[in-house]
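Limitations
The structure tokens in this dataset are predictions for the assembled complex, not deposited experimental models. Users should treat interface geometry with appropriate caution, especially where small molecules or nucleic acid strands are included. An illustrative entry is reproduced here so readers can see what is and is not provided.
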Amino acid sequence: MTEPIKPPPPPAANGAQHNGDALLQVTALVRHFPVTRGVVFRHQVGAVRAVDGIDMSVSKGQTLGLVGESGCGKTTTGRLLTRLDEPTSGTIVIDGHDVTHLGPGKMRPMRREIQMIFQDPYSSLNPRHTVGAIVGAPFRLQKVKVPGGIRKNVQELLELVGLNPEHYNRYPHEFSGGQRQRIGIARTLALRPKLIVADEPVSALDVSIQAQVINLLEDLQDELGLTYVVIAHDLSVVRHISDRVAVMYLGKIVELADRDLLYTKPRHPYTVALLSAVPVPEPLTSPSGQRQRRQRIRLEGDVPSPLLPPRACRFHTRCWKAQEICQTEEPPLAELIPGHQVACHFPENTAPEPADDVPIPAADA
Amino acid sequence: MPGSMLEVRDLRIHFQTDDGTVRAVDGVSFSLERGRTLGIVGESGSGKSVTSMGILGLHHGTRAEITGEILLDGENLVGASPVRVRELRGSKMAMIFQDPLSSLHPYYTVGAQIIEAYRIHNDVSKQAARQHAIDLLGRVGIPTPKTRVDDYPHQFSGGMRQRAMIAMALSCDPELLIADEPTTALDVTVQAQILDLISDLQSEFGSAVIMITHDLGVVAELSDDILVMYAGRVAEYGSAADIFGRPDHPYTWGLLSSMPRMDRERTTRLVPIPGTPPSLIKVPSGCPFHPRCRYTHLTGGRCDTEVPPLREAGTTGHAAACHLTAEQRRQQWDELQAGKVPGQGQAGQPSPAAQGPVSQGRAEA
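Predicted assembly:
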């Protein structure tokens, strides 16, 4: 399909996990948005450090979950991966091609390989186009000749995502939220991409519909061998669909681990706090029948501004374990045990036995 | 229940539109006592917000037709004069809205908005009201309230805005506090802070709280009793322990099994509710849930003809509107817990009947 544009660069040797069959390899990725003053004499007075040096890789057929609170840079990361935005520095290698600084023309053939699922199924579909036009647009834009014609292919796609192929000529407003998200997914799949970046694919949907779309995404992955990067703030959804999970805080990955390791033995204090903050759908009552609140780690205050992030470890301003060194020396994202990378000077859950001082939601069921 | 602070009896709120009558709320009854929290759960369009706005008299001046009774300490608010409802609103009952950014006025300082609310209902000097506002902001956990009182909403973070909203709602010590999705727009760590705050303030003020949300986790954390709504009607009502421990309605089962759970073993596959929520203009005949229900074959064809009454089965105070017998409910729930789902072959795919585009009555509040 596409000509190799550039041979992949030699793998960087800075702690990022290397994987022989990595479809996506991100190294030291940075995106700073300049903040300027002045109208006539524009000058830069600072930068929003949205993404500030992240390393990660995703193997073929895997799902990487990217979690974090708003403002942590997860959406910007997604936009960089799909090259809807250009990185300030760092490299993005997709399937052996360095796409970091490709221009729009050179990027276009690569776009067949990387597609995106958007959050809001209401604003990501053009209300004046029919479903057929929306799902068929990738073929037309990429000038792809498909055997059997576009219409037949679109109808197959609609069927693949669980919609009625006869609805080819209907408009988005005739569909419900979950069905619209299916239309968006059909469009994403049109060119048979290898990598799909899904930015909050289910957060705009009702719970019962969420499950339908999550199951659909999993079925499609099995059927088509897709690789996903799923960006979400809902930790239970991420746990359900991811193989590996990266936790972001203020533009950095603070923990990256296999799903079960991360959820059963989180090591970074931020991850521990994040997991303990998730409300559990199981009422807690005292022996006398009184309603009780779960004990959880309360993080004080808000996430600091990415305009002026705290020095060294960015979490030290809210961390209950912070010490001198956390303010002076930045902890690297290091692999403590195979498959588990943490950027912390004083990680949790390092004892061989599960530590008792940390209430992990999974432990009280 | 005589002596209840709030008693809602057979509340119906209908809207006349060009497409037909939207039955947003269709026969809802519940009661609430001081110091208790009622959680109202349901998907979008189930009528939960319309109900709460009805209680506060916020449908005045719209085309809403309200029948039934809303008794606040014995005083019927349906048909009460707008002047009287206005007197009560803000002083005796108050509301915390979902999106603090759009419900705070951007032109006025946070302090001015709290002072205004306080002075409408209390004859106090500006100075005293200002002091009251500062106290309240401190109470809800805003750091340095003396200076922050003069800030504009945009200078507050999302969590702080929601705290300011809560301060405003509490300004006149309301006896009934309605929180409409108070944490939906917030990150999990901030959500945990706000839920703690609401819970602490409730025990301090002893007010009754109605918590409206689609998040079953949030309901489980805070509620004593839970009302599950579907298509403008009550599907199930009971204590939190009943609803989560032994739910009686197939819709509640669907909600519980369609969400990924962090507190349980990870399941390989979610069990979604098939289909989509119905239009409130054309509510299905009989039980409104029957087109999506997996258990209609057990009731001898009554589901699509006969509206099931809300009745208790077994435990007092725990009622469900379903034709299944108590025995069947117990058996089916146990099977579902064991992972057996009727018609599992097509789980995840909407049934053909539910696939057609829906002409949704967009009647959500």
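Some entries come with short summary sentences. For this one: Residues 35 and 353 of chain A are 48 Å apart (CA to CA).
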